[in-house]
């Protein structure tokens, strides 16, 4: 049972890594154009927060037998802070101040949670406190593609829902759902069970509407963890998004 538990943790780490790296396409575009255009940086900051909470929860003195949760989310936190810094570099001043302000707030809250869990809580109370915080934000991250699901149903087209992102949401959620069940840890099983179900819905929608890919036109394009871009009102900036591995959601353990 321990070997099986470890195996699903490793599989979950591998699929989660693909999700963390998915926004590279978006940031390649940002760096190339030296502009964040209509992309939003908020989801990257919130994903960083989720990574930090999950990484903290997985540490042995908080939650035993969950070190694989810490390793992948620690890696994710390093990747997300890089995204945030790149975004801030090329964002307009107003957006830059907004993102940096949110980053400071998120880091402050995280430090407060760490200090409370270290000095005010012990044993099961510490695990409960950190687990609830990590669970809430994991569910929030997994729920981020709901706007894309609504768009797919409305347009009857999967043009804006990359297949591989949906696949890795499903795989990551499923692997860590089983990992949580085997480890008897509801704080891992519950949010990832939700993520697995949401990923399955995306794959089902893809199977239903895959033949309609590219048959609809819109001024919206897919944006990784943001779910979608804002409407692009400048005709010369409009692009027809491909269905390649573009960021759609950064869901986490």
TrEMBL record:
Per the record, where are the segments of Polar residues compositional bias?
234-253
* InterPro entries in UniProt: SWEET, SWEET_rpt
| Membrane-topology annotation of the record | Multi-pass membrane protein
Where is it found, in Gene Ontology cellular component terms? plasma membrane
Gene3D superfamilies per the UniProt record, alphabetical: 1.20.1280.290
Return the annotated region ranges for Disordered.
Answer: 219-253
Reply yes or no: does the keyword Ion transport apply: no
Its subcellular locations are: Cell membrane
* Record's keyword annotation contains Transmembrane helix: yes
Q: Membrane-spanning regions, if any? A: 6-27, 39-59, 65-87, 99-120, 132-153, 160-182, 188-209
**Highest rank taxon of the organism:** Eukaryota
What processes in GO biological process is this protein linked to?
A: protein homooligomerization
Q: Which UniProt keywords apply?
A: Cell membrane, Membrane, Repeat, Sugar transport, Transmembrane, Transmembrane helix, Transport
Listed GO molecular functions? sugar transmembrane transporter activity
Q: Which family does it belong to?
A: Belongs to the SWEET sugar transporter family.
What does this chain do?
Mediates both low-affinity uptake and efflux of sugar across the membrane.
For this entry, the protein name equals Bidirectional sugar transporter SWEET
């Amino acid at each position: 049972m321990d070997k099986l538990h470890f195996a699903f943790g490793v599989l979950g780490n591998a699929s989660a890594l693909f999700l963390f790296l998915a926004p590279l396409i978006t940031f390649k575009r940002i760096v190339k154009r030296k502009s964040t255009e209509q992309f939003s940086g908020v989801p990257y900051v919130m994903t960083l927060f989720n990574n930090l909470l999950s990484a903290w929860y997985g540490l042995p003195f908080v939650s035993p037998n969950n070190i694989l949760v810490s390793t992948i989310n620690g890696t994710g936190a390093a990747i997300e802070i890089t995204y945030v810094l790149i975004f801030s570099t090329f964002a307009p001043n107003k957006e830059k101040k907004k993102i940096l302000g949110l980053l400071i707030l998120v880091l402050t809250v995280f430090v407060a949670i760490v200090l409370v869990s270290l000095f005010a809580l012990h044993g099961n109370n510490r695990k409960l406190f950190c687990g609830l915080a990590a669970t809430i934000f994991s569910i929030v991250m997994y729920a981020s593609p709901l706007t894309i699901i609504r768009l797919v149903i409305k347009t009857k087209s999967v043009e804006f829902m990359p297949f591989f992102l949906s696949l890795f949401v499903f795989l990551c959620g499923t692997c860590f759902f089983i990992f949580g069940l085997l480890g008897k840890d509801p704080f891992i099983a519950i949010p990832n069970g939700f993520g697995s179900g949401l990923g399955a819905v995306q794959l089902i929608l893809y199977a239903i509407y895959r033949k309609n890919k590219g048959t609809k036109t819109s001024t919206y394009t897919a944006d990784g963890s943001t779910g979608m871009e804002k409407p692009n009102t400048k005709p010369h900036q409009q692009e027809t998004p491909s269905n390649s591995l573009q960021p759609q959601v950064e869901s986490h353990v």
